[in-house]
Amino acid sequence: MKEWLRRAFTRKIMVEDKRGRIRKRLEPPSDRLVLAVQFSLYLLLALVALEIAHLAVLHTWNSEIFSAITGTAGTIFGVLLERKG
Protein backbone atom coordinates (compact mmCIF):
# COMPACT_ATOMS: atom_id res chain seq x y z
CA MET A 1 0.00 0.00 0.00
CA LYS A 2 2.92 2.33 0.71
CA GLU A 3 4.15 2.32 -2.89
CA TRP A 4 0.63 2.84 -4.21
CA LEU A 5 0.23 5.90 -1.97
CA ARG A 6 3.65 7.17 -3.00
CA ARG A 7 2.66 6.97 -6.68
CA ALA A 8 -0.73 8.57 -5.99
CA PHE A 9 0.83 11.56 -4.20
CA THR A 10 3.65 12.14 -6.68
CA ARG A 11 3.23 15.52 -8.36
CA LYS A 12 3.96 16.00 -12.04
CA ILE A 13 5.35 19.50 -12.56
CA MET A 14 6.06 21.07 -15.93
CA VAL A 15 9.32 23.06 -15.89
CA GLU A 16 11.14 24.93 -18.60
CA ASP A 17 14.81 24.11 -19.09
CA LYS A 18 17.59 26.43 -20.28
CA ARG A 19 16.81 25.82 -23.94
CA GLY A 20 13.15 26.71 -23.54
CA ARG A 21 11.84 23.17 -23.75
CA ILE A 22 9.13 22.12 -21.35
CA ARG A 23 9.89 18.97 -19.40
CA LYS A 24 7.93 16.97 -16.89
CA ARG A 25 9.49 16.66 -13.44
CA LEU A 26 8.23 14.25 -10.78
CA GLU A 27 8.14 15.50 -7.19
CA PRO A 28 7.77 12.61 -4.71
CA PRO A 29 5.80 13.07 -1.48
CA SER A 30 7.42 13.12 1.93
CA ASP A 31 7.59 9.90 3.91
CA ARG A 32 5.63 11.52 6.76
CA LEU A 33 2.70 12.26 4.44
CA VAL A 34 2.62 8.71 3.10
CA LEU A 35 2.80 7.19 6.59
CA ALA A 36 0.12 9.52 7.95
CA VAL A 37 -2.31 8.68 5.15
CA GLN A 38 -1.52 4.97 5.47
CA PHE A 39 -2.24 5.14 9.20
CA SER A 40 -5.48 7.03 8.52
CA LEU A 41 -6.64 4.41 6.02
CA TYR A 42 -5.96 1.60 8.50
CA LEU A 43 -7.79 3.58 11.19
CA LEU A 44 -10.74 4.02 8.84
CA LEU A 45 -10.88 0.28 8.16
CA ALA A 46 -10.70 -0.50 11.88
CA LEU A 47 -13.53 1.94 12.65
CA VAL A 48 -15.72 0.45 9.92
CA ALA A 49 -15.07 -3.03 11.30
CA LEU A 50 -15.93 -1.78 14.79
CA GLU A 51 -19.21 -0.27 13.55
CA ILE A 52 -20.12 -3.52 11.78
CA ALA A 53 -19.36 -5.50 14.93
CA HIS A 54 -21.47 -3.10 16.97
CA LEU A 55 -24.36 -3.56 14.55
CA ALA A 56 -23.99 -7.34 14.55
CA VAL A 57 -23.78 -7.74 18.31
CA LEU A 58 -26.00 -4.99 19.72
CA HIS A 59 -28.27 -4.39 16.70
CA THR A 60 -27.98 -0.61 17.14
CA TRP A 61 -26.19 2.18 15.32
CA ASN A 62 -23.37 3.90 17.21
CA SER A 63 -23.27 7.56 16.20
CA GLU A 64 -19.93 8.22 17.91
CA ILE A 65 -18.15 5.59 15.81
CA PHE A 66 -19.86 6.90 12.68
CA SER A 67 -18.75 10.43 13.51
CA ALA A 68 -15.15 9.19 13.86
CA ILE A 69 -15.49 7.43 10.48
CA THR A 70 -16.71 10.58 8.74
CA GLY A 71 -14.00 12.69 10.38
CA THR A 72 -11.26 10.30 9.32
CA ALA A 73 -12.64 10.04 5.78
CA GLY A 74 -12.84 13.82 5.54
CA THR A 75 -9.24 14.15 6.63
CA ILE A 76 -8.07 11.63 4.03
CA PHE A 77 -10.01 13.32 1.22
CA GLY A 78 -8.73 16.73 2.34
CA VAL A 79 -5.14 15.52 2.13
CA LEU A 80 -5.79 14.02 -1.31
CA LEU A 81 -7.31 17.22 -2.67
CA GLU A 82 -4.63 19.44 -1.17
CA ARG A 83 -1.73 17.37 -2.48
CA LYS A 84 -3.07 17.06 -6.02
CA GLY A 85 -4.37 20.65 -6.19
What best-fitting shape do the alpha-carbon axes yield? elongated
Spatial strand order of the main sheet: 1-2
Mean pLDDT: 90
Question: Count of helices?
Answer: 3
Q: Number of domains in the coordinates? A: 1
**Fraction in helix:** 55-70%
Q: Separation of termini?
A: 22 Å
- List the helices and strands in order: HEEHH
Q: Could you give the count of β-strands?
A: 2
Structure at a glance:
With 85 residues, the protein is α+β, with helices and mostly antiparallel strands. It has helices at residues 2-8, 31-58, 63-84; strands spanning 11-16, 22-27.
Which helices and strands appear, and what pairs or packs with what?
Blueprint: H1 2-8, E1 11-16, E2 22-27, H2 31-58, H3 63-84
Antiparallel strand pairs: 1-2
Task: Tag the structure with descriptive keywords.
alpha+beta
Structure description:
- The protein has three helices and two strands, in the order H-E-E-H-H.
- The radius of gyration is 19 Å and the shape is elongated.
- The model has no long low-confidence stretch (mean pLDDT 90).
- It has one domain (2-84).
- It is α+β, with helices and mostly antiparallel strands and 85 residues long.
